[in-house]
């Protein structure tokens, strides 16, 4: 079933309970695969070293009580009933919270932000809100954040830390999930055989898993939910059997009193064992991160009525079995498979491996999505993004990240060769992400929900105390595997921050060195410079949203000619998940009308799909044509320049694919073709014998344009027939003399290396080399 048709942006979800239940069923396979497989390794990781299973059962009952209350307070209370409400127009995750804060406090890390972006329909705030009123809760906090750049940087770093830990979890979760599932083979063979079989089998499954990523999860998505549902039914049924067969009174261990008895007896060893217990909530963040694929209600229903009770029954069943088995028959110690009846171990093993693969798939896909978000918000180098489904929203594949994750995952598997060290590493990654979410949520409560600071303090104190306790227990295992997520996060954080810092400094250089409009008027007014204009459309790529970029003057200086029509194109991201197609483009003029210089700003949200080259070109040309048709001629005067040094008036223009009442473009190879049309007015320019393409603009029936606009459209048509050329800057960024050593290292080596190995603009990737001009410039920042 198509998730896009049932997405939160589709109103049918409010009309049918069947739709909500269908989404809840589908979310089992996409969201809960990781969380559902946690019983495979929680008890084994908890009793691996710090505590032992004694005859009194105080340890096993205490651990069961801790698991029950941890599952109840963190995933159920915190995420299901509180965090899921903090969605960003239906989207969730760390960057959704950061995006909300950026919009409500104007602390965006994007340098080319415009006030016009606040008019976007998804850039909404609480109705009737007076942001500048001192009576609004959180006003003082908002004012403090806006004034202090240091606090803004710390907030960005905090969001990036959470993001980097999610990426680290993308390395560790597949390893521990598949490793734990395959560990069931230990009960069917000798220890000598097992140590030579387990690791190769795990590596083979991981290689297969990552090798199939380029097909996209939508091709196998229809089997994900049945697999996880079968797994939940399996573990809950086994749990019920173990409860009634071995210890029907195990439910008494759910009392918090057993936590007190457990900690009183084990003391420091019990505290250190919390690092294994917290693995019962691994994957909880996926409920919020994957919110964009489903709805808040569907995720709440799936967890509350399916996942949560199944997990509780599974953990109670394992505890009931272990409470009657204190001397195990093998060196397997305490694990999931010992509590599975021997007659069904092989079928359960098969289902467990499939469920582990599904859970791994979910975190890998989530890693791809969060890398794309970071790229959109200028916090990660541009990478190749492949959209694996034209129907299902958000299904992407990033080759570079995929193979990097696979190599790191294999290195962790082969390096540690057991679940003990991998679980220590995974636990620290999981709890760090949750701590970051708690910190950001406390700010959202005040700045976005406008609640009293007391609510925020109560939230961060209650949940923060629990998570800090688990965090400290995980951090103490730093030398026993917990260093892995710290090392991975540090590397990715360094890459992200250096890229963001270099991009910001480069933009500041562009702003400081942009050319004034007076220079342009002088250029056009002088006949002694020998400037000529050639046929075609020249699209100049720039990050500036106002003014004339220095790359244009550099281009004219070295090649005294430019195109018949020049478009200063800025493709930018805005801190919202999606921009509606009818709000995509901002179009305006640069200079007088007769110069045929236009500025076009294409706006995308951090979850938007960028169009391919051909479709983007057509939308770009149609947006300019629609602007020409609807624009009212004004007398240009240099005296009317605004503070940015331009006299530009930008107009919101819809993309042609969504604006059926606007200008449409038709292209053919020069042969006569008839398109079905009504009595629409059509402007046709006959091609010359040397032109292979004919372009026609179809105007709405009610369109009435003056002669100057008609001439301008005719000239745009001729230019489009002659072809388009993309003029892109090839920059060499260097730190200015006198800069600190850290800045020189970051700019001259770090940013330069990342820039040389990153991709160009997405709309220029498929542009023929003959249609691309690169202008080299040195940026001294």
UniProtKB/TrEMBL annotation:
<dbReference type="InterPro" id="IPR053951">
    <property type="entry name" value="K_trans_N"/>
</dbReference>
<dbReference type="GO" id="GO:0015079">
    <property type="term" value="F:potassium ion transmembrane transporter activity"/>
</dbReference>
<feature type="transmembrane region" description="Helical">
    <location>
        <begin position="301"/>
        <end position="323"/>
    </location>
</feature>
<feature type="transmembrane region" description="Helical">
    <location>
        <begin position="343"/>
        <end position="364"/>
    </location>
</feature>
<feature type="transmembrane region" description="Helical">
    <location>
        <begin position="428"/>
        <end position="447"/>
    </location>
</feature>
<comment type="function">
    <text>Potassium transporter.</text>
</comment>
<dbReference type="GO" id="GO:0005886">
    <property type="term" value="C:plasma membrane"/>
</dbReference>
<feature type="transmembrane region" description="Helical">
    <location>
        <begin position="155"/>
        <end position="176"/>
    </location>
</feature>
<protein>
    <recommendedName>
        <fullName>Potassium transporter</fullName>
    </recommendedName>
</protein>
<feature type="transmembrane region" description="Helical">
    <location>
        <begin position="482"/>
        <end position="499"/>
    </location>
</feature>
<feature type="transmembrane region" description="Helical">
    <location>
        <begin position="60"/>
        <end position="81"/>
    </location>
</feature>
<comment type="similarity">
    <text>Belongs to the HAK/KUP transporter (TC 2.A.72.3) family.</text>
</comment>
<keyword id="KW-0630">Potassium</keyword>
<dbReference type="Pfam" id="PF22776">
    <property type="entry name" value="K_trans_C"/>
</dbReference>
<keyword id="KW-0406">Ion transport</keyword>
<dbReference type="InterPro" id="IPR053952">
    <property type="entry name" value="K_trans_C"/>
</dbReference>
<feature type="transmembrane region" description="Helical">
    <location>
        <begin position="20"/>
        <end position="40"/>
    </location>
</feature>
<keyword id="KW-0633">Potassium transport</keyword>
<dbReference type="InterPro" id="IPR003855">
    <property type="entry name" value="K+_transporter"/>
</dbReference>
<feature type="transmembrane region" description="Helical">
    <location>
        <begin position="454"/>
        <end position="476"/>
    </location>
</feature>
<keyword id="KW-0472">Membrane</keyword>
<keyword id="KW-1133">Transmembrane helix</keyword>
<feature type="transmembrane region" description="Helical">
    <location>
        <begin position="270"/>
        <end position="289"/>
    </location>
</feature>
<keyword id="KW-0813">Transport</keyword>
<feature type="domain" description="K+ potassium transporter C-terminal">
    <location>
        <begin position="536"/>
        <end position="779"/>
    </location>
</feature>
<feature type="domain" description="K+ potassium transporter integral membrane">
    <location>
        <begin position="23"/>
        <end position="521"/>
    </location>
</feature>
<feature type="transmembrane region" description="Helical">
    <location>
        <begin position="196"/>
        <end position="215"/>
    </location>
</feature>
<feature type="transmembrane region" description="Helical">
    <location>
        <begin position="222"/>
        <end position="244"/>
    </location>
</feature>
<feature type="transmembrane region" description="Helical">
    <location>
        <begin position="396"/>
        <end position="416"/>
    </location>
</feature>
<keyword id="KW-0812">Transmembrane</keyword>
<dbReference type="Pfam" id="PF02705">
    <property type="entry name" value="K_trans"/>
</dbReference>
